[in-house]
Specification:
- It is a single chain.
- The chain contains 34 helices and 20 strands.
- The structure holds a DNA duplex (12 and 16 nucleotides).
Length: 863
DNA sequence: TCTGCGTGCGCG
DNA sequence: AAAGCGCGCACGCAGA
């Protein structure tokens, strides 16, 4: 029996058992269908269903819990702000829980084939079926969607979903224009516990079941997979899918109710959720669905030019070095010697063995009878062995032997630089990570260019390889069904967004005109297509901009025909937030005052900290050669260093690289705390809060928790006491750490120092970076309502401290720019004024300030 | 052929 | 024997 067979039999058995289990579960679920679950498969029942929805809405008006909750949704700063501007977010009148069952997971292509909703006060749920492929009787798609269209599109009847962005996309694919999607139990859970391993509805429900009341306790935990395996629900009967779908919204309701109550009870979490987060699913969906038009012609052109440049740089590099057989031999032995030698030995043994066999069979062959089968077999074997001798056991034949110098291989480059050329390794002087050596990164290489001119093309090689590989060659293949480039936004630990590519179904599955007649046939296509097979979209937040070559890539992002970009970034938002905290919480107004006076705070503090005239602290003074130390940059570095908790030595090191003496750098560093005493107070108080509670929060109460910090800090205190260390800032910490008697204890000590230090830096940073994210989110929310919904501007981008819309050219006026400025600077009020830089862009990064723009002709002045 | 990791680099 | 925050992606490499 071949080895694979038992495995295969085992697999089949397991599969069969799983299938039987699923069948049993399905039978269970059908048998125990609750009386208050209603599966609708007949158009004539739809009106009665909607009547129940109306009844629920009526009941909620009079219910105390709901009225209190509506206030939470309604009573927000952003709503008041919008109201002042004549933009009304209608007052909330009801809250129901919804879900869609779909043909798949592609956010631009897939469609719903059923929806479910839960009516909390009536305590009943509905599932409407129209896309099932079982041939059974079901509702007509247009009727099923038609009856809920108005409700789904009403902003005052708010809907809760679990992962609302997905359902919003599906509903928009269905041709609906959903509004009032204002609760997302997945988002809410992120606010309650961002460390949750799994944010799916089922795992959350199972985990928190005991807190959700007796109704929850009685419910089973079957997951989608438990019932349907990996298949689409559209392949199953509406009855079973319906029960499952209703159970989902039922669970969703229990979770939603508990979450709202918990948000209210816990610290400031209701603020984080209701002031900001409740609005974001719609805003995010709008941004990610809008995407970017790409100037493909220009991108292709750029690709051609850069490919040529890359080839040239590679040639220049290789021409300078004699990469001959000898070089490759030495490199192979240096990098892969062990594996190559190993192979040679094994190969020699194989050869010896074959020779032995050959000799043996030749002897047998001599004796064999030519008429026998054995004779023929031996003959064939000997002939084959003699005509196909095993390759020689020399290094050049080993699979690991390197036959070509690869400029993308760090190992190859390191061999060339450190072994072949014998350049002295300065990695440790340049990079932060002390454990590293033989680095071939840009910053290290730059230092070698001076003595080894021929290495210079390497800088171009990595530049063009990055641009071509990550952007230029990727983007044309990553466009979605609308021909645009999209992205997926996620929330990270501080509350910022991250952006990434995503995978979907092939674009040719997209069908523009779906009718009741072709719907099921189309669903059949969608269901049978492989999920997540085609890479689409990119990270939109790291499109190059810091050098000309990269900038050219950004310039291929263009507004749609007849529109122009209007973009704005918040100027120095993080320093302003630091200044705000220092002023409001710690009574140090110095920093805030510089912003109020409209001064360049880095120049102001540069002058104070380094004892230099203001005039000498400008960028201009440095660039013009008036002075050879970039004081403004240095000061900016220092604020960053302080904000991220950088060590003094590390700051001094980079400062010295900028041309200042070590003494002056240290003096400036020390003076920082004299001039801005509130800064270190702010940092220390934040640490104290972290030590007490294990988390920190943004100005809007959005938490970041640091699991394990409190315990580990406590343990560290015990160890520090033991060694006579006064605290983490004891200047003799290193010296005193030698007092630990055992290596184990010393290791533990340093591990704790590293861990707690990491938490502390992240925790302080969170209060600033996270608040910055909140400020921009509020700007985004306001501009979603005021620009996108009210004025029809496309919402293309959010990028940490900036956002971008596309404005129809006939709307691009001075007033439009003023509105955008107002959104950026007056949506949020801090102890420091906010400032922004608003630009008009015919292409991304082809920027014109409003003074440079001819609003009458919608083009740059003088163009 | 897939997966996980290290290194390096794009962005704020 | 520590000491700059927050990300995602491409590539080489090693092991399965």
């Amino acid at each position: 029996m071949a080895k694979a067979e038992p495995v295969e039999i085992g697999r089949r058995l397991h599969e069969k058992e799983e299938a039987e289990k699923r069948t049993q579960r399905i039978a269970d679920v059908l048998e125990n269908k609750p009386k208050n679950y209603h599966v609708i498969t007949d158009d004539s029942k739809l009106d009665a269903m909607i009547e129940r929805l109306r009844e629920e809405v009526r009941l909620q008006q009079k219910d105390e819990w709901f009225r209190r909750v509506f206030d939470l949704f309604n009573d927000t700063l952003i709503r008041r702000k919008l109201s002042e501007r004549g933009i009304e977010i209608p007052l909330v009148k009801s809250l129901t829980v919804w879900d869609t069952e779909t043909s798949g997971l592609d956010k631009m292509i897939d469609l719903s084939g059923g929806y479910s909703f839960w009516l909390p006060l009536l305590n009943e749920g509905y599932y409407v079926a129209y896309g099932h492929l079982t041939g059974e009787a079901q509702c007509t798609r247009s009727k099923a969607l038609g009856v809920i269209r108005r409700f789904i599109e009403m902003a005052d009847h708010i809907k809760s979903f679990h992962n609302a962005e997905y359902d919003l996309n599906i509903m928009r694919n269905d041709g609906l224009k959903p509004a009032g999607v204002r609760f997302d139990s997945q988002d809410a859970h992120w606010i309650l516990n961002e460390h949750e391993k799994s944010h799916g509805l089922k795992p959350l429900f199972t985990k928190y079941k005991s807190m959700l009341g007796p109704e929850a306790a009685a419910m089973d935990d079957y997951t989608f997979e438990d019932l349907f395996g990996n298949e689409s629900p559209m392949m199953y009967d509406s009855e079973i899918v319906g029960i499952y779908a209703i159970k989902d919204v039922h669970k969703g309701w229990l979770l939603t109710k508990w979450q709202i109550d918990t948000l209210v009870k816990t610290d400031d979490l209701a603020r984080a959720y209701f002031e900001i987060r409740q609005y974001l699913p719609e805003v995010n969906t709008e941004i990610t669905r809008t995407g970017f038009v790409i100037d493909l012609g220009r991108l292709r052109q750029l690709g051609e030019v850069y490919s040529a440049e890359l080839e040239k740089a590679k040639r220049d590099f290789l021409d300078a070095y004699d990469i001959d057989d000898n070089f490759l031999y030495n490199m192979s032995m240096a990098l892969k010697g062990d594996r190559i030698r190993d192979w040679c030995e094994k190969q020699q043994r194989r050869i010896d063995k074959q020779a032995e066999m050959l000799a043996k069979r030749k002897a047998e062959f001599k004796k064999a009878n030519p008429t026998t089968k054995k004779y023929a077999q031996l003959k064939e074997w000997i002939e084959r062995a003699e005509s196909n001798p095993l390759i020689e056991p020399i290094p050049q034949n080993a699979p690991d032997y390197i036959t070509e110098f690869n400029l993308s291989s760090n190992d190859h480059l390191a061999y060339l630089i450190y072994d072949h050329l014998g350049i002295k390794d300065i990695t440790k002087q340049v990079v932060k990570d002390k454990s590293r050596s033989r680095a071939v990164s840009k910053d290290v290489l730059e230092r070698y260019f001076e003595r080894e001119e021929s290495l210079k093309p390497l800088a171009k090689v990595s530049l063009y390889e990055k641009l071509l590989g990550t952007y230029i060659e990727k983007i044309p293949d990553a466009l979605d069904v609308d021909g645009r480039l999209h992205t997926e936004l996620n929330t990270v630990s501080t509350g910022r967004y991250s952006s990434k590519g995503y995978k979907g179904k092939p674009n040719d599955l997209f069908r523009e005109n779906v009718t009741d007649d072709n719907f099921l046939e189309h669903i059949r296509c969608l269901v049978s297509a492989k999920e997540k097979s085609v890479p689409k979209g990119t990270n939109i937040q790291n499109i190059p901009s810091r050098n000309d070559e990269g900038l050219a890539v950004r310039k291929t992002f263009i507004p749609r025909e007849g529109y122009t970009y209007l973009g704005s970034d918040l100027s120095s938002i993080e320093p302003r937030l630091q200044a705000h905290r220092m002023s409001v919480e710690f009574g140090d107004d110095t920093f805030a005052e510089t912003f109020r006076k409209g001064l360049d705070s880095y120049i102001e503090f540069a002058s104070m900290m380094f004892d230099v005239d203001r005039e000498l602290c400008t960028e201009k003074a440095y660039k013009s050669g008036l002075i050879n130390i970039p004081y403004r940059k240095l000061t900016k570095d220092m604020f960053l260093a302080k904000g991220y908790g950088q060590a003094e030595d590390q700051f001094v090191k980079t400062a010295v690289q900028r041309g200042i003496t070590e003494e002056a750098a240290r003096a400036g560093y020390a003076k920082f705390d004299v001039i801005l005493p509130g800064f270190s107070k702010m940092v220390q108080e934040t640490f104290a809060h972290l030590r007490k509670y294990g988390w920190t929060a943004t100005l809007w109460g959005q938490k970041r928790r640091f699991p394990g910090y409190i315990e580990k800090y406590r343990r560290l205190c015990v160890l520090m006491k033991k060694a006579g260390i006064k605290g983490k800032d004891d200047p003799e910490l290193g010296k005193k750490s030698r007092r630990f008697r055992t290596q184990v204890e010393r290791n533990e000590f340093w591990d704790l120092i590293r861990f707690t230090g990491g938490c502390e830096r992240s925790a302080f940073n969170h209060t600033i970076q996270g608040s910055g994210a909140n400020v921009l989110q509020l700007c985004m929310i306001r501009s979603y309502y005021e620009c996108t919904l009210a004025r029809g501007w496309e919402f293309n981008l959010t990028l940490h401290d900036e956002q971008k819309h596309s404005v129809p050219n006939d709307q691009l006026t001075e007033e439009a720019v003023e509105l955008y400025d107002d959104i950026m600077t007056n949506t949020v009020q801090l102890a420091t004024p906010l400032a922004c830089d608003t630009v008009i862009e015919p292409r991304w990064m082809e920027e014109y300030s409003p003074d440079e723009w001819d609003f009458n002709n919608c083009k740059p002045k003088g163009a």
